[in-house]
């Protein structure tokens, strides 16, 4: 049966600049607010590691990706700062002195993003915690009020690095800003939280202690900084900071609360293979001495494997007819049709209104 079709606007993004959907936790993705520095950025050594004991996000501050559509959709309440619990959900820890704060004044301020992959973009939206919010409770949708939305034309995000955003003048003290970057041609967005001391009417921000992680300082025999360098549908490439005088390391893995020892390795890195696709795994690493004594296990690291993509898919054709759910390959990417349609030879028709990138 012949499918109906709609005329495609010349303004649609061409296949040559089509963005890709990359699974969170991959070191090749994507972007974060760098000025004022976001919570994740301040975990990174590039920003002085002013936020401590952050886990793997210290190596990937740009990878906080979750479904877009906030506040109707997106990460669940209590998991907003971590974009849905990524990197073990450490960024969701919330107290008055857990995170380093940047002093800002009410009125117009400039927010600048840094991108490692400047996806095609529809908009950025900024929120701030409400007057009277509780800084010792997890962040929820009810914690925030909207500041502004910066619309974009669907082109790469790098064409609009900075935004002018007006902060409230009716409050002072500790507040959290949430910046959400909506990608135009995938179903995802990137979430950045910024901790600030807001100053108005010359009122100095209250004196606060240095950032104080709730966890104890790692012991000298405890591996730290566990993270994934690359994640596929069947493997996770782990890396961590080594322990002095360790003979080898024990790898613990699980999909639930209980982790089992699955392997050992001499080096502070391990490629875990043979995993199930689209599955969440939890890891801990323990250093083992020459005498065989295990030290304290690392902090829990959580990662999700990619969806497995079929290898027998046909190449997309501009003249073929497709039904919703059909999958094709094109220029090294895998696409899934979002609706029924019939092609008429236009090579620009592999765009976001008809197809979504799945790998």
From TrEMBL:
Q: Where is the composition biased (Polar residues)?
A: 220-229
Subcellular location(s) per record: Secreted
Main localization category: secreted
Q: Which SMART domains match?
A: FN3
State the source organism's domain of life.
Answer: Bacteria
Where in the numbering of this chain does the Fibronectin type-III domain appear? 222-308
* Keyword field: Carbohydrate metabolism, Hydrolase, Polysaccharide degradation, Secreted, Signal
Give the matching Pfam families. CBM_5_12, fn3, LPMO_10
Q: Where is this region: Disordered?
A: 201-229
The UniProt entry, under InterPro entries, shows: CBM5/12, CBM_sf_5/12, Cellulose/chitin-bd_N, FN3_dom, FN3_sf, GlcNAc_Chitin_IntDeg, Ig-like_fold, Ig_E-set
Q: Which SUPFAM superfamilies match?
A: Carbohydrate binding domain (SSF51055), E set domains (SSF81296), Fibronectin type III (SSF49265)
Q: Secretion signal: which residues? A: 1-29
Question: Know the name of this protein?
Answer: Chitin binding protein
Q: Name one GO biological process term.
A: polysaccharide catabolic process
Natural source organism: Fictibacillus macauensis ZFHKF-1
Gene Ontology MF term list: carbohydrate binding; hydrolase activity, hydrolyzing O-glycosyl compounds
A single GO cellular-component term on record: extracellular region
